[in-house]
Write a structure and sequence with these properties.
CATH superfamily of one domain: P-loop containing nucleotide triphosphate hydrolases
Strand content: 15-25%
CATH class of one domain: Alpha Beta
CATH topology of one domain: Rossmann fold
Distance between the termini: 21 Å
Helix content: 55-70%
Largest sheet: 6 strands, antiparallel
Shape: elongated
Length: 565
Amino acid sequence: MLEQLSVRNFAIIESIDIDFSPGMTVFSGETGTGKSLIVDALGFLLGARVDNSIIREGATECAVSGLFSASSDSQVGNWLKENGIEWQPNEEILLRRVLKQNGRTLAWIQDRQVSRNELLEFTQNLVDIHGQHEHQRLIDSSTHLDMLDAYAGLEDELRSYQKLYLEWKEAARQLQELLEQKAKRAQEVDYLDFVIRDIASIKPKPNEDNELLAEEKILSEHEKLFGAVSEALMFLDSDESADVLHALKKVRANIETARTIDIRLGSFSERLSTAYYELEDVSESLNEYKASLRFDPDRLESIERRLADLQRLKHKYGPKLDDVLQAYERARRRLESLEHAEENAEELEKKEKTLEKEVFNRAYQLSEKRMIAAVSMSSSIKEIVKNLGMPEAQVNLRLKRIIDERGEYRTTPRGIDEAEFFIAPNPGEPELPLSRIASGGELSRFALAIKAVLASKDEVETLVFDEIDSGIGGQVGVAVGEYLKQLSQYRQVLCVTHLATIAVQADHQGKVEKSVSKGRTGASIRFLSGKERETEIARMLSGSSESEVSRIHAAELLKKAISHD
């Protein structure tokens, strides 16, 4: 329940603090005094969009705060708990919202700053505002199914269905994408298979081309290589006195003799010995190498063929042999992926069909529950409308299942149903869609009836009606006032009205007044009682509070309303 509302610099309101009580509260006043601004300010606090033009001239920001009460086991209490906002049962809940000149808004629940979406999510369980724009929403048949689901308590079931529906649609999209790409995949598979077979037929190895080129060089220049090695061996060790080893041997012997005379030559002797043995080893190794040299024309031809094959692969997939090997791996992995794609398509098709069946079953179950609820809701609305001065009115919330071109039920994000209110206000008239009701008064009563029916099904404790009296008067106004009074027995009701017959039913009446001070227009509110309230009711009856007849009538209406309590 709304306990208190504080408004600062909101349009012509400089500062207003309103304390609220249970039951029914009405706001009255002359046209243009700003009665509806109170509702607008409350709407802003609850998350409605406004632009910075609403900020009072000369102010840098506007701010609205409200204190609410709620039970610990309500949706309000559960939401606070789930979102980690500290709150104790029976403790008031503080909401604040500020609008800056730059258009930025800030909002808090208790001391936690929240986003606008979080604010809207939370406050939908606190207050329900029915403004003049709601009439347009009512005549929009696309909203009627939402109303039915709210009445039947099917919102959670609908959200669960919608989640499944989206999953099914995503699976269907993926499957369609796979099917559309099937021909393209087949072409790619053929190409990849060719690449794999082409490279695999050669079986290249890492660095094989470089190794083969080195071997080819040896074979193709065998004669030159053999001659150079042979000549080197001839000079190194040829069993002749002129070769290097024999000469070095003689040098070493002479130095050994000299060392016996001068020991300082010892290091030279050791170095010469090392050089001699190293050259001797080189000679032996070169002899072995020379012996291994064989000219094999068949091997040379084989290498040249192999190099030609490798060059062809490098030309197609290179330029390097490593590039060829990488191309092979990429093709193999991609081919494997495409083969899995075909398997995935089969699995996805099974999944899509399973989901489609489940979506339809859920939609059908939802529809069955809606069928039962539609009858009950129609009857409840009819009963309320009857009490609001339309005793013979017929109300029917028609639920129609959507049929596709094949004559089968078609599922949508909202199920398989369409809903629309039909009404016959008077006996003998055909039932027509609500959108074709021309009378604003009939529409107002119908709107009130729907709100009353929905209010009985949810936990929202505060109902706000902004000029619910549009297009009505006389006895109908009396009926509307009496019903709002009944509604206030189990809900807090706030109402902006021009009708005295509604105002007299209120437990509390606040008069909104406009005044000019220091060249600035401002709005204020004061709650009336006794003679002041009687005077205001008289003004609402005749347009003038000076009329004695009106004052007497006002007194009678108030007395009668009190006696019915």
